[in-house]
Fold:
Amino acid sequence: MGDYDGRALINGERRQAQGEQVFDCKSPVDGRLLATVARCGQADVDAAVASARAAFEQRSWAGMAPAHRKRALIKFADQILSHADELALMETLDMGKPVKYARSVDVNSAANCIRWYGEATDKVYDEIAPTPSTALALIQREPVGVVAVIVPWNYPMIMAAWKIAPALAAGNSVVLKPSEKSPLTALRLAELALAAGIPAGVFNVVPGYGQEAGAALAMHMDVDCIAFTGSTRVGKQIHVMAGQSNLKRAWTELGGKSPNIVFADCPDLDKAVQAAVSGVFFNQGESCNAPSRLFVEASIRDDFMAKALALAPKYMPGDPLDKSTVMGAIVDQTQLNTVMAYIQAGQQQGAELVFGGQQARVESGGYYVQPTIFAGVTPEMTIAKEEIFGPVLSVLSFTDTADVVRQANNSVYGLQAAVWSRDVNKAIGVARALRAGTVHVNQYDEDDITVPFGGYKQSGVGRDKSLHAFDKYTEMKTTWIRIDSPV
Structure:
């Protein structure tokens, strides 16, 4: 059975899947069995949605005063922090990231997100329109109702928090389906939400496969909104199913192939190298916003590459449970095979493999890949176009500003990008020209909960984080009141 409880959480109770179907949750760290997890299907999704709908209609949460919802969400954040070590270990064992990052980044970020939206709950005001004196027009936000949330395996707690926090803060009920590759912390979060005072039925978790539980949520006629983070391929299917069913609102944060452009007048070359290398190898490269396309101006290419190759060995994968480890395990054998296939494609298409490219720690029973750097990459190569979701950096060179902007934008994705230059005019001009939801200047991946996260083009629609996230989980209602003034 493993060490962890893999049963679903529906209406405040742990439950086996109907029919008692299960799947094994194994650790990518060493292959050990962590849990036997409920394989939820249509009947379980129906039960979870019915539970969420009943809670919404009974207004046990939606009807609660915003100040009271705020207190419950803040207690929820406190519960996460009080169980930080437990959650960090669970996240590391489940998806392979180094435990020091699971503790310092994932746990803290999830708690901070839930606390921030909790604090915002009673600070978001409605509006009164500038009408004639014969009318009063109220513009009010109301919760959409039942929100389905489907999250990926790379940042299970953070991705869940980005969606459930604003959805709950707005007064909705939620049904969360975590990835079958990393379902454990989602189930524990739901228990902690109950302990914090969030009523039963308001936050439900149905583990299972995308084509079963995920599809059931996307097609469900009683789900009002679906929020998804994952691949562009699946995101397109979500939009189709939302339209085929009840035209539920569908918000998707999808893939990326983020360009990182370093000009010769970069203000700090060492900092740019560090950001480029750490950015693509952090979380084993399993990040949708990883700066996986590195454009270096030709005149500094050799110096940049020498510095990058000197740094790369520091990211050799180690035991994720060792607090000195900075790169851990790939999530499973399937993803390992995918990454290795991309590395092979890069070599076959003529890119120069200058570092890594091999599996590592095979004797551990887990799934590990060396940090990998390709030089001499050209835009038409597969490794320059497709999202790899592994620790693989593709280095391209350029000589012309307009051309590098064209190359950077020549992608189906538009999630993030970066520009490095001490020339403020160049930096701002290039940043404006890049078609991406976030453009970093002279840094990479600095942000916080106050700014929106999302992309252009096939990187999805809608934004996570910031107050803008409330737009996804609320309806805008106008109430027009006729006034026959006696004065």
In short: The first helix runs from residue 42 to 58. The radius of gyration is 23 Å. The mean pLDDT is 97. Residues 315 and 327 are 6 Å apart (CA to CA).
